[in-house]
Amino acid sequence: MAEETREDLATLSELDEKRLLEALSTRFTQNHIYTYIGDILIAVNPFKYLPLYEKTVSDLYKCHEKSLLPPHIFSVADRAYQSMLGKLATGPRNQCIVISGESGAGKTESTKLLLRQIMELCKANSQLERQILQVNPLLEAFGNAQTVMNDNSSRFGKYIQLRFQNASVKGAKINEYLLEKSRVVHQDEGERNFHIFYYMLGGISAAEKEIYGLLNPVLYRYINNQYGTDEMITQWSTKYLEVCNAMDMVGFHEQEKVDMMTILAGILSLGNIGFEPQENAILKVTDQSTGWLKAAAGQFGVQEDELLNCLICTMSVTRGESINRYHSQQQAEDARDSIAKVAYGRVFGWIVSKINELLTPKETFDDLHEIGILDIFGFENFAVNRYEQLCINLANEQLQYFFNHHIFLMGQREYKEEGIDWETITFKDNKPILDLFLAKPVGIFSLLDEQSAFPQATDKNFVEKLNSSFKGNAHFEVVRSHMPMFSIVHYAGRVQYNASGFLEKNRDTIPANIRGLFINSVTPLLSVLFAATISRTGTLMPQSRAKLLKSIDDNFNSTRKLSVGAQFKHSLTVLMEKMFAANPHFIRCIKPNSSKKPDLLDSKLIMEQLRYNGLLETIRIRRDGYSWRPLFEDFAQRYRILLIKPDVPSNKETCLCILNNANLKDWKCGHSRLFFKYWHQEELAKLIERLEHAATVIQKNYLKYICRRKYRKLIAELKQKKLQLEKEEEERRLKEREEEEERKRHLDMEQENQRPPVPMPRKLKSAPQPRPRSVIPDIVHRHLPPVPRPRSKIEVASLVKVADTINDDLPQADSIHEDEEVIQRQVKRMNTLHWFRQTQARKVVTNGAFPCWFHGMISRRQAEDLMTDKPPGCFLIRVGQSRNGYTLTYRGKDRCRHYLIEMQSNGKYVILGEDRAHASLIDLIEYHKTVGIQPFMEVLVDPCGQKCKQQPDYEELQNIIKTSSIHEENVDALEGNEQLHHEHIEHPSPLGSSNMKDPHVPPVMKRIFERNARAEAKNIPKKWTQDESNIYNKNSSRPFPRLYPSIRLAMREIQQIQQHFSDRTNDSEAKNS
User: Fold this and answer.
1) What are the protein's UniProt keywords (predicted)?
2) Are residues 994 and 969 in contact, defined by beta-carbon separation less than 8 angstroms?
3) What is the dihedral of CA 833, 837, 839, 845, to 10 degrees?
4) Which residues on neighbouring strands pair with residue 898, listed in sequence order?
5) Cβ atoms of residues 176 and 143 within 8 Å
6) Beta sheet of 896-903, edge-to-edge order
7) 3-class SS at 647?
8) CA 1039/CA 12 separation, integer angstroms
9) What are the beta bridge partners of residue 587?
10) pLDDT for 1023
11) Residue 907 needs a FRET pair 20 to 30 A away by CA distance; which of 426, 582, 829, 1022 works?
């Protein structure tokens, strides 16, 4: 293999920067974007689609040998998974995969590929795997945004913990770090707000925009009054549908989604509120902003005047007296933006918390192992770098230190301690930079917290404090400017920071009156968000509202003691503890050019990344060093099986015997541990696998021998029993023959002794009929032992029949066991029928009848019998006999297939193995009439109708139609009255007049309907158009925002004001012309 195309750079004969760059460049031009440095993967972002991730490729990298396939990110996933199971160097142990690189280098896509492959490796066809895969697109929508460096830049960090028991995934947890909330209210030139705002504006239908109170996107200041092209809007619309489906798949309820979208719409409306002073110097909302204030209040579920008071003044209580301190215009705008940032941050934190709640293992397991995947913001150096960039670059410094510690520090220290001959490799140690940030009491973050504690301190004071404290530090540079600025020399280069806003962002305070206002919101989600507490790592911890009523103030005050910087430092500490306790795998992502174009390679940019990542030194230490360094005891316990000897001690001599038998080369032996190259793990794993295969063959043959011996024994017993039966049958026949001959002899003797016949009177009783030969006379039978029933034909039975024959001695135990199974089946069937009647019947019945494709609770065999003469594409749906769910039976070309339909906690229907949730079974069927069902991509064509058209064929469906048709509307009304502002319950639909006309409705219910109708009529605008009435009536089954009528009125007022000012502008332009 040529030097320039080597798949493992650690095997290069000559090593320098030029050869390293040539090797990567040559492979990149050949679309080989992955390269190894020992066990470290280099991934170059191609900025285009490559056919490297298809299902066939994924299957190749399952339990593969690294040397037989080219480098791939799937190989890293497989190595981490096998190591977690204990199939490689160590026993079962937690693993972590660290993905690092610049912004735009491809870290987020790499994370998605790793997740997908790990789910393929542990595939157990469970819905949990699909839910985990839906987490990434959901978090991307709310946490990613377009920047000048990356169109899909992560504006937060996440550490995904996948939890396994043996080989199956049992749960997952997301840890999020430092969301860039300031992006909600401000974006620099060439950047955008978070994706979800554009997805929502582009994907929501006109009817839904009326519901949420959304207008023309160019009106919103928080997205810079800009939108996108038609092509981009189409993409955003598709993305919005994907986000909604991801929320359905993970398990979000419909009302939660509506409340969340309404809050996002309220954030956009809030940004359009402007202020102007009055004659008394108290601020008021501008005339153009009055409608936006009403809209924001309705969308947040609060009173308009209370929201205005929170914006223009701060209320404090001194000695029992309330004092209002009115804001200046700048302070009011800051308060407005602060509300928007906090509200969005709380929504994002709630999404992560909800995901963790839904993906938590349902059962308690003692032996769970983890694979962690770290996808954190890349190193950033913009034209203007703010507080967020300081925290992001600190996180990257911490990751670089972890890499250096694991690759360089630990190894070279152990070489020296264990007496291994080693020439020290120098590397760029960034520990002094971390000390500059994190040292106490004199560190950048410590000084920042110190200045944040003083209300009168300014950003300029903070920079002056830094200049005086770190003037002589080699990694700190003083910047002479009228702006508060300073520079840090990071491991990746020099970055200049603008400290404007540092103190305010670090404090991240919420005025108490704003928090109290939102806690009392009629929107349950908003109330929960602001009643929640914040952990030491900055994580949102929602709690029951009832539990917080007594301690809201205490929790609020205690959480405010920690600044954003302190929370971020603590979260990094916790993250490092998890990573140091796990076995790491590294992926270094490289950005080929800054213009985000495919097939373009900037040698200068790549060389900069290779240098500050220390890849040249990494190659050298991977080539010459020993990456695997187990203790004698650990190695002997793991590989003692290679000696094939019992009771082997775990000492140095045993290790040496193992290595001599394994014929390994280039290893070293220290005082207490062994030193191996990175490829030794795979060589030993092959030897273990070979022995495991041999053990499997031995077990197979031994079991074969045991089963065959048992079978022969049973056959011999059967033959013996057969001979015994034949012998008994022969003896019985012999006895019958002798008895028959004896009877005949007695009859003959009686006839000979009789005299000549004399006429006698006719006997009243007829002469006895001769008995058949097989019947024994009563006299003889009374004295003979019981004879087994004769069996004239006995063949050599199968093993199962033989077992049944042997177990004939215990008929009572079998019957009891069978009775218990029958009872259990009946109980499960009754429970399932009860579940169907109570929760599903009204959802399935349409127009007073079940659909033709619905066949009730029938068995698998019955379903297949119905499909026998049906054409391919025919289908039916049946209720599961032993579980709460459904089964879709499909007639394929060669056989019938049965697809399980899961009923999720949020009421959605999902075919097991699919990644799309449906609101009803009807929606599911309509969707799969055009989109095939995985993995065979079979499309539903013709429903399998029931045999009888007048009434259902199946008895469990006979009475359900009548019950549901009579009481459906009454139950809806009763349920609607009970659903009052609960977090997880859907909004009650408006009651129609048809309920009162139903003859089955009792008078009491009619009065309830009339009262509710009158109450709702007061809140509904009188001047609705026909289309608007249709929106409200046709979608009455779906949840609505709590103050929907108020939102509608505010939207009308905004449109009228916009039209008024537009007319005035046109008039003035006409006069000027």
Assistant:
1) Actin-binding, ATP-binding, Cell projection, Cytoplasm, Cytoskeleton, Motor protein, Myosin, Nucleotide-binding, Repeat, SH2 domain
2) yes
3) 120
4) 889
5) yes
6) 909-911, 896-903, 886-891, 874-879, 942-943
7) coil
8) 64
9) 41, 99
10) 40
11) 829
866's CB contacts (< 8 A; 6+ apart) are: 855, 858, 876, 944
Nearest alpha-carbon partner for 360 in 94, 163, 119: 163
Q: What is the 3-state secondary structure (H, E, C) of 666-704?
A: CCEECCCEEEECCCHHHHHHHHHHHHHHHHHHHHHHHHH
Cα distance between residue 534 and residue 568, in whole Å: 12
Closest CA to 410 of 576, 635, 627, 582: 627
pLDDT of residue 12: 79
Q: What are phi and psi of 627, to 5 degrees?
A: -80, -20
In one-letter notation, the amino acid at residue 564 is: V
Show the beta-strand stretches assigned E in 16-135: 34-37, 40-44, 95-100
Q: Which residues are annotated as a binding site for ATP?
A: 101-108
Burial of 889 (0-12, 13-18, 19+ CB in 10 A): buried
pLDDT score at 796? 37
Q: Which are the catalytic amino acids?
A: 103-104, 108, 150, 153-154, 378, 380
At 331, which amino acid appears?
A: Q
pLDDT at position 87 is 80
How far is the C-alpha of 359 from the C-alpha of 368, rounded, in Å? 14
Contacts of 12 (CB under 8 A, 6+ apart): 3, 6, 19, 20, 23, 619, 623
The DSSP code sequence of 763-816 is: PSSPPPPPPPTTSPPHHHHHHSPP-PPP-S------HHHHHHHHGGG-HHHHHH
Q: Which of 857, 865, 861, 856 is nearest to 825 (CA)?
A: 857
Q: What is the rounded distance in angstroms from the CA atom of residue 89 to the CA atom of residue 682?
A: 8
User: What dihedral do alpha carbons 295, 299, 300, 306 form, nearest 10°?
Assistant: 30
Closest by Cα among 610, 592, 609 to 601: 592
Token code pair at residue 23: 């090797």
- Extract the tokens encoding 103: 């912004």
CB atoms within 10 A of CB 816: 11
What is the side-by-side strand order in the sheet with 485-490?
476-478, 485-490, 493-498
Find, among 51, 154, 165, 39, the residue nearest to 107 by Cα: 154
Burial of 724 (0-12, 13-18, 19+ CB in 10 A): exposed
Angstrom distance (rounded) from CA 357 to CA 256: 14
Structure tokens at 61: 């990298």
Give dist(CA 42, CA 389) in Å, integer. Answer: 25
User: Which amino acid makes up residue 38?
Assistant: G
Please, what are the averages of pLDDT over each run of 10 residues along the chain (1073 residues)? 71 80 91 90 93 91 81 93 82 89 90 94 82 93 92 91 90 91 91 95 91 92 91 94 94 93 95 89 88 93 92 78 83 91 94 93 83 89 91 92 87 84 84 93 92 91 94 92 94 92 88 86 91 84 51 44 87 91 92 91 90 82 80 84 81 86 84 83 82 88 92 92 91 90 85 64 53 44 47 40 44 61 83 84 81 87 88 91 88 90 90 90 93 90 76 62 51 41 37 42 47 51 42 56 83 83 71 69
DSSP β-bridge partners for residue 890: 875, 897
Residue 982 CA to residue 259 CA, distance in Å, equals 11
Are 153 and 145 a contacting pair, CB within 8 Å? yes
Would you say 134 and 622 are in contact if contact means Cβ atoms under 8 Å apart?
no
The whole-angstrom separation of Cα 804 and Cα 799 is: 9
What was the pLDDT predicted at 720? 92
Determine how many CB atoms are found less than 10 A away from the CB of residue 830. Answer: 10
pLDDT attached to residue 77: 94
> What does the alpha-carbon distance between residue 924 and residue 907 come to, in Å, rounded to a whole number?
13
